[in-house]
Amino acid sequence: MSVVNCSNICLVIWWMFIGVRKCAVIIEERGLQPDDVTPLNDNSTRTCSTFASTRPRHTQIFAQSVCSTDKMSITLVGQRMKCDNDLYVAGLAGPDVGKPLNKWQSCQRRWENTTDDGVEWCSFNCDCINGCDQIMVLRWPKILADTSWNLCDIIQSCTASCPEAPCYNGGTCENNTCRCLPYCQGQYCEMCAKDPYPPPINLTIDPETSLKVVMDEGWIIVLRRRDKALNVFDGRYWVDYENGFGDLASEFWLGNKYLHLLTNNGSTYKCRVDMLTNDGEWRWAEYGTFSVGTAKDKYRIGVYDYNSRSTAGDAWTSSEESYYKVISGTGFTAKDKDNDGSYTNCAETHHGGWWYYSCSKGVLTGEWEYGLMWNLFNLEYVDFLIKAN
Fold first, then answer.
1. What range does the record give for the signal peptide (predicted)?
2. How far apart are CA 185 and CA 168, in angstroms?
């Protein structure tokens, strides 16, 4: 446990930047007068009077002391914030409704009877514990004229690393650091430009066919791989890849028959691969033309027009090392149906069905350690997406 003893207040606010000196009114974020007050759930423990408030952007626990001797203590979802016994209020908050409340903390002492040019100051003391993001030691003056609150000074900070604190929004803890998805940032991946796990929607392909899909800014996610522990692709047969499998909320394959219907409905399609490579870099590759044939035609793939601005390199159409890379025109191979150009069954070798030409170097369904690859990179995360042109 690391400890920070502050004069004034300890508070965590992810949208603040260390070193900012400009004052800003943030009484709304303090939550001292929550709009919607409800009791805490059974996972919390407390002494003194304790309340919870839920806001559109985050969940917050707010405790107000009515005791004179007991220490205030909040324990929630395995996280703990401890404050001194003379504190008046304490807060513990999380980045989103329903997420663990271990990101932002504050402890506020009772008001002291000292003033300076009309400003009544108070002193604070907090423990910086495992699970805190950044404990920033701040000055909070109370402006007696209008009782508003201004944030003025950032004095000191401390951090806690994963795995003591969780990684949010699909991030994983590696070497005590959260590795985030490409559209998320922050020490614990708590700030995302978009929802990393958008809910599925119903998509009508033709008058007789509709299915649930996950969309990402107009792109249909065909394949998603996030969690090595799941490994839902290993051991799958032709019929699995044909109909689709997995969980749209985590890892899945949409299904070859749906890829055929989507890419042959009167519109031309392009495809894109977003990937986290084993060197820790986020890369992408895009192709301007993508199609999948019928079951009778072995769900033959058509992929052309590599986007030269792509950062991952061309693993599907490059004339270099064509023995491995040119997959356009190949049929789909599964462990029980060999349609590749190799003397072995590449689906057995890579532990995943794919459009192989002699066990290609752009395989997205293979085994995590050896069969999930793009050119010379092994992949940590990957999304395979298609979109109508």
1. 1-23
2. 10
Determine contact, residues 148/159, Cβ cutoff 8 Å: no
- Asked if residue 385 lies in contact with residue 270, where contact means CB atoms within 8 angstroms, the answer is no
Q: Which range scores top for mean pLDDT: 160-169, 242-251, 290-299?
A: 290-299
Strand pairing partners for 304?
289
How far is the C-alpha of 25 from the C-alpha of 108, rounded, in Å? 17
For residues 244 and 314, state if they share a domain: yes
Lowest mean pLDDT among 35-44, 86-95, 109-118: 35-44
Phi-psi region of 254 (alpha: psi -120 to 50; beta: other; left: phi over 0): alpha
**Number of structural domains in the chain:** 3
- Cα atoms found within 13 Å of the Cα of residue 93, Cβ hemisphere only: 30
Full domain range(s) for residue 34: 9-159
Together in a domain, 144 and 167: no
Question: Do 209 and 346 fall into the same domain?
Answer: yes
Whether residue 3 lies inside any domain: the answer is: no
Q: Residue 380 and residue 182: Cα distance in Å, rounded?
A: 12
- Measure the CA–CA gap between 80 and 77, rounded to whole angstroms: 8
CATH number of the domain within which 313 lies: 3.90.215.10
